Every structure is written in structure tokens, then in C-alpha cells.
Amino acid sequence: MRKPLPALLAAGLAAAAFTTSTQALAYGAGDFFARLGVAKVAPKSDNGELNLAGLDPSLSSYGVNVEDDTGFAFTLGYRFHDNVGVELLAALPFKHDFQVDGVTGGSTKHLPPTLTVQYYPLGGTAALVQPYVGVGVNYTRFSSEKTDIGLDLDLSSSWGAAGQVGVDLLINDNWALNAAAWYIDIDTDAKIEGVDVGTIKIDPLVVMGGISYRF
């Protein structure tokens, strides 16, 4: 039975609209994107020991505990293939309080830019859930180091590996909800009053939730 022309036109328009929508939502090569959110930097529980005997022979080695901090973070990225892209994590400086057991406390600020190469298993499709994983490198620069007892503290910059998992939950062609986590290898050599006292192993888990915009 032959379909009436209006029905055929309606079916054709619906198919065209669906195809256009699918192409518009396709998530892949050529996309630039920015993500903005709140990130928690949670150092691992055992941050190493500092040997203070070089400062005073009556002193020995003492454990270090570095506390969490939360702040705004953002990323910029580009997809040069449907399934592969790069992303740079940046943030305002994070501030961490720390304790050297039984000796002193203090604080430091740091900037942890992290560049990752990412793989998107559902890239190039219109799937509204777009997970990804990434591996890369981190550079961390420390500043504003201080101790509660007034001793001069210097923390060296750190280079280390980074791993990432994340997911975008697409809202429309441009906007998405985003959640991501990074594990970052951050070790810094510490000097107090110019004396080498050991290495602080921060190695944080960074968890971020926010929004994503692609353009």
C-alpha cells in the first residue's frame, strides 16, 4: 500500500532531524573543550620522614603528615582523533598544612599543572555518557613555604607521572556534567635552613566535579 505524500515527507523530516541531531552530538575529532569545577587534593596518608639530625644532633627522624585542600580547578583540551585527545589540568594555587611529628607544623602552596593523553572508548558516537582514561606527566612548583617555629623551609619542584579517569554526561551539543580523578606522583626534596632533611612524598588523589563546555 502506497503511503500518502505528507506521511512520507514527515518521515523524511524526522529522519533528517535525527541524523542532524546525531551528528551534532557526535563526540570526537576537532572538539576543543574546557572543564571547570571544584577539586580536592588528598595526599596519601604516609608522607615520609625528615631527618633533622643535621640541624641538631639531639634530633632524629620524624614523620610528616600533609593535609588535604580544596579549591577551583579547570582544564583545557583538544580531540585530534575521535578516540584520542590531550588535556591540561590547571588551578589556582592549593595550600597544604603539614605537621612534622612532635617538632613543628607549617604550610606550603603549590601549582600542579598536569598534561595527559586521553582515550575515549565511545568517541565519535552520540552516546550521552562519555568515559575516558588518561596518562601523562605532572610538574609541581612549591611556594610560600613556612614553619611554625620560624625556620626557613625550601621545597624543590617535582616532576612525576599521572593517571586519570573521568566521564562526561552530555546535556546538549555544548554542555556536559563532568567528574574526573587523577593520581599524581609528587615527591619534593626538603631543606630546612639550607640543610637537606629528606623527601616528602605527597602522591595525591585529585578528585574534581564540575561542568564541561565544548566548542
Task: Give a verbal description of the structure.
This protein is mainly β. The protein has one domain: Beta Barrel (Porin). Helices cover about 10% and strands about 60% of the residues. The chain contains one helix and 15 strands; from the N terminus they run H-E-E-E-E-E-E-E-E-E-E-E-E-E-E-E. An eight-stranded antiparallel beta barrel has the order 1-4-5-8-9-11-12-15. Strands 10-13-14 form a three-stranded antiparallel beta sheet, with no helix packed on it. Strand 6 (about 95-100) and strand 7 (about 105-110) form a beta hairpin.
Quick synopsis:
With 215 residues, this protein is mostly beta strands.
SSE inventory with pairings:
Blueprint: H1 5-25, E1 32-42, E2 49-51, E3 61-66, E4 69-79, E5 84-91, E6 94-100, E7 104-111, E8 114-119, E9 129-147, E10 153-155, E11 158-170, E12 175-184, E13 187-192, E14 195-201, E15 205-214
Antiparallel strand pairs: 1-4, 1-15, 2-3, 3-6, 4-5, 5-8, 6-7, 7-9, 8-9, 9-11, 10-13, 11-12, 12-15, 13-14
Keyword list:
mainly beta, 215 residues, elongated, Porin, 8-stranded antiparallel beta barrel, 3-stranded antiparallel sheet
Please report the number of helical segments.
Answer: 1
Terminal CA distance: 46 Å
Largest sheet: 8 strands, antiparallel, barrel
As a percent range, the share of strand residues is over 45%
The total of beta strands comes to: 15
Assigned CATH class: Mainly Beta
Integer count of domains: 1
Record the strand order, biggest sheet: 1-4-5-8-9-11-12-15
Radius of gyration: 24 Å
Query: What do we call the CATH topology?
Result: Porin
H/E element sequence: HEEEEEEEEEEEEEEE
Outline the low-pLDDT stretches.
1-23
